[in-house]
């Protein structure tokens, strides 16, 4: 199994952001996407996860092979931690959440309503969801937001285990996860050229407020 992205171009809000992005991700590999705020990392991940169309290019991995962890945790506030994981496992046709609880250090919080968790605990729950989907490719958008140092290290180990068992991970992050084995792709050189007739000289404005 692999993800092959070929000559991908993406836009958001009608503005072209990235073009000519190509890479391959094989089983057992991680790729970290870098680039300044607003360059289009989230947009690229959304396109790969099948949440929005690409302007052009090919993506080989079907969305049903992908577990996408977005900025929002997608937690159901009134369910407990265990019930949230059971819900997600059932949606993906699986049972058993113990490994996910243990891996993200959530066992002691299993019976707590999710709405009572701290931000970092919620984030760990959102990331534990990845494990119960049993999907091959994890697409992770700033997965470590709200995590303390120990939890970042813990999550890096979770990713490592996923890779060691034939999974793959595509990660947009501004911080160093400590995954020295991961490849890196800086998206800065793939910034889309603005069509001349829009009158922009950058992603900013060209005097529209004057
Ligand atoms: N819903 C939206 N409608 C219109 N434009 C949007 C929308 N969401 C994001 N954008 C714009 O699209 C551009 C790319 O956003 P995106 O979130 O993909 O960047 P990013 O590289 O992930 O940024 P960051 O590092 O800040 O997370 C930005 O200029 C942003 O303002």
TrEMBL record:
Pfam families listed in its UniProt record: ABC_tran
InterPro entries membership: AAA+_ATPase, ABC_transporter-like_ATP-bd, ABC_transporter-like_CS, ABC_transptr_haem_export_CcmA, P-loop_NTPase
Keywords: ATP-binding, Cytochrome c-type biogenesis, Membrane, Nucleotide-binding, Translocase, Transport
Molecular function (Gene Ontology), one example: ATP binding
UniProt-listed SMART domains: AAA
Stretches assigned to the ABC transporter domain: 3-210
Keyword ATP-binding in record: yes
An individual GO BP term: cytochrome complex assembly
Record keyword Transport present: yes
Domain of life of the organism encoding this protein: Bacteria
Record NCBIfam families: ccmA
Full protein name: Heme ABC exporter ATP-binding protein CcmA
């Amino acid at each position: 199994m692999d993800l092959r992205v070929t000559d991908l171009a993406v836009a958001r809000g009608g503005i072209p952001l990235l073009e000519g992005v190509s890479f391959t991700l094989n089983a057992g590999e991680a790729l970290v996407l870098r680039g300044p705020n607003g360059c289009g990392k989230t947009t690229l991940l959304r396109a790969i996860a099948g949440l929005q169309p690409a302007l052009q290019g090919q993506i080989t991995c079907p969305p049903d092979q992908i577990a996408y962890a977005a900025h929002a945790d997608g937690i159901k506030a009134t369910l407990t931690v265990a019930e949230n994981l059971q819900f997600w496992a059932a949606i993906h046709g699986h049972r058993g959440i113990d490994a996910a609880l243990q891996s993200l250090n959530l066992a002691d919080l299993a019976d707590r309503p999710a709405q009572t968790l701290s931000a970092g605990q919620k984030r760990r729950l959102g990331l534990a969801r990845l494990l119960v989907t049993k999907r091959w490719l994890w697409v992770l958008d700033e997965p470590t937001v709200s995590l303390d140092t120990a939890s970042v290290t813990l999550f890096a180990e979770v990713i490592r285990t996923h890779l060691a068992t034939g999974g793959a991970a595509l990660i947009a992050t501004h911080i160093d996860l400590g995954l020295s084995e991961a490849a890196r792709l800086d998206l800065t050189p793939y910034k889309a050229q603005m069509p001349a007739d829009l009158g922009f000289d950058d992603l900013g404005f060209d005097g529209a407020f004057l």
